[in-house]
Amino acid sequence: MALQHNVDLRPYNTFGISVHADRSGTFHNVEELRGLLADPEVQNSPLLVLGGGSNILFTQDFRGTALSNGIPGIDVVKEDSDHVWVKAGAGVVWHEFVLFCVEQGWGGIENLSLIPGKVGAAPMQNIGAYGVEIKDTFHALEALRIDNGEVVSFTKDQCAFGYRESYFKREGKGRYIILSVTFRLTERPVLNTSYGNIQQELERMGITAPTLRDVSNAVIAIRRSKLPDPAVIGNAGSFFKNPVVPEDVLNSIRKSDPDVVAYPAGPGHFKLAAGWLIERAGLKGYRQGQQGVHDRQALVLVNHGGATGKAIYDLSEHVLKTVKARFGVELEREVNIL
Predict the structure, then answer these.
(1) Residue among 133, 201, 279, 334 flagged as catalytic
(2) Do the Cβ atoms of 87 and 181 come closer than 8 Å?
């Protein structure tokens, strides 16, 4: 595949930030990827691999090579009376993969409907929503080792999943390019409708005996009601992680804010809802120029049109400092900053 030069990356990031990469190319299989990595221009410059661009904020031009992962394909690799193992190319759009599995009656990822991005990014982030994370159905993945072109398989344990974390965001960062991911889904789905507003949405829809498709549709409706469409207003979904704090910090917050939203997160610790913290700090709908905090979901920072990545980053700093001053809690960015 031929490289393009001085490429505008605005179509490749959901914030819609106009920055340029020195070089750019797309690969659709491992042979094309190896060919691009063998190019002297690529070997002698920083490398960035893009999926859907839904978890990245560009604050400056990228002085290197940006490669777009376009590996397609969804295949059943194994099946028994209870489970099916489904392998998807890293370039498959995540939501399309979820809908495909729902239509086949394979359960386990329906609560992850409408999450932006591609399959390859799912294990990197250990994406999660409505009580479900990728690690719950993950079986294995294949990745190309950049320094020698070898294809390596990773098990669930080797991926070292954590909250929005994995081996590929820590020790393995910049060392591998994910090619495919295999999921172990169930032929006998047990629906998870207790988290968030799924049950209430199903009741609103008049559904008393929900199917996989019903749960998926309910999640889609909830997400669309709360989250902005990147095609309409630039954003990267949830910008901040939900912080995990010791019980004494939670109790301190409860003294002034007894309605604080918190969930158990291991012995003596609780996960706080970052969106609640940001909203209670008075920042929901807050705006600085062309960048702001979304007026329906405070976890989301948005580009109202023409904002720079640096300006959005500065806004995130303001959010961090305001929440810290109000609650004594330090938020952490979920979005990758470049």
Answers:
(1) 334
(2) yes
Q: Is the pTM of this model over 0.85?
A: no
Q: Which residues does residue 47 pair with via DSSP β-bridges, in sequence order?
A: 65
What CA–CA distance (Å, rounded) separates 116 from 234?
Answer: 13
Annotated active-site residue 204? The verdict is: no
- The active-site residue, picked from 166, 238, 279, 316, is 238
* Catalytic residue from among 24, 113, 164, 279: 164
Does 314 or 261 have the greater pLDDT score?
314
Write the pLDDT tens digit of every residue in 274-302.
999 999 999 999 999 999 999 989 999 99
Q: Domains in the chain, ordered, with CATH?
A: 4-69 (3.30.43.10), 74-186 (3.30.465.10), 234-337 (3.90.78.10)
| Residues linked to residue 6 through DSSP beta bridges, in sequence order | none
**C-alpha–C-alpha distance, residues 232 and 248, integer Å:** 42
> How many Å apart are CA 13 and CA 29, to the nearest integer?
22
pLDDT, tens digit (0-9, with 9 covering 90-100), for 33-82: 999 999 998 888 899 988 878 889 999 999 999 999 999 999 999 999 99
Tell me, rounded to whole angstroms, the distance of Cα 337 from its chain centroid: 14
Report pLDDT digits (tens) over 180-200. 999 999 998 888 888 768 888
Taking alpha carbons only, the member of 99, 176, 105, 94 closest to residue 134 is 94
* Residue 296 bears catalytic tag: no
Is 311 in contact with 18 (CB distance < 8 Å)?
no
